[in-house]
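Try this one yourself first.
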């Protein structure tokens, strides 16, 4: 075996391996402290790209679920208002039925008609003042947009609760000031109740549709979160095992480096 003073090859090899071990140990410690297997693009470039894409999908789905919830809120406001209109119309039916009888005096007819006209005014007020987040609910077209962040995963739900003013309900000009007018008004009121009932059914069906869409998006979001977690999260058990391994290798590497440096000093014995 040749003996050389210029290069300590064994020392260089031990030092190089020690650097590799130390780098692996630092990477393992970072994974443990962060809980993430991927802390930079160098750790897993492909995995990082996939995880970032999944995160974008999750963000889109989370907001889309909120959009759907807001849409449900609009429709629930509309349904509540329509319920009030139905209650008012039911009272109008009572008044019209009462006024349709010739046994009611003219003064009573006038009082009944005054209440009836107040009901019509209130229905108009409900139509014009009901709003959600500052936007009118009835007679307006609102769009609820949902997406999973992809070009093919978007959808748009159009919400258009019909206007419920006296003109739309064909109640304009109806009166209860005499039996003949009251009987004609009763027919119109009954038809208006059917119209409002139909609108409530449409609103209810759309609420169910939006709630179903929100449920699907929530489930999809959970699945994406699981997939992202599988890619990025560190396996704590495996990572701890790696830390133990690299800690031991670092100690043995330092011992090997020390031994290789001491071996070089044996050349001095030849000079004694």
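Now uncover the answer:
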């Amino acid at each position: 075996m040749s003996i050389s003073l210029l290069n300590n090859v064994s020392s260089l090899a031990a030092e190089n391996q020690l650097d590799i071990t130390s780098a692996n140990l630092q990477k393992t410690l970072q994974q443990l402290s962060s809980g993430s297997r991927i802390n930079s693009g160098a750790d897993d470039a492909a995995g990082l790209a996939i995880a970032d894409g999944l995160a974008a999908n999750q963000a889109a789905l989370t907001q889309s679920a909120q959009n759907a919830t807001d849409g449900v809120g609009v429709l629930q406001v509309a349904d509540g208002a329509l319920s009030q209109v139905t209650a008012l119309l039911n009272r109008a039916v009572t008044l019209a039925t009462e006024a349709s009888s010739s046994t009611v005096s003219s003064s009573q007819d006038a009082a009944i008609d005054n209440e009836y006209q107040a009901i019509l005014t209130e229905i108009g007020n409900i139509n014009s003042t009901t709003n959600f987040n500052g936007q009118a609910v009835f007679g307006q077209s609102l769009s609820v947009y949902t997406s999973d962040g992809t070009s093919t995963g978007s959808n748009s739900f159009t919400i258009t609760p019909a206007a419920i003013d006296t003109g739309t309900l064909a109640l304009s000009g109806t009166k209860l000031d005499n039996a003949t007018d009251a009987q004609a008004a009763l027919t119109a009121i009954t038809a208006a109740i059917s119209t409002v009932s139909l609108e409530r059914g449409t609103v209810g069906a759309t609420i169910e549709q939006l709630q179903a869409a929100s449920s699907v998006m929530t489930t999809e979001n959970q699945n994406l979160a699981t997939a992202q977690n599988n890619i990025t999260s560190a396996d704590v058990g495996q990572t701890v095992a790696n830390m133990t391994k690299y800690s031991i290798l670092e100690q043995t590497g330092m011992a090997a480096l020390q031994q290789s440096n001491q071996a070089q000093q044996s050349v001095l014995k030849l000079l004694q």
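Discussion: Helices lie at 9-34, 45-99, 106-129, 179-232, 236-264. The chain has two domains: 9-35+234-267, 54-232.
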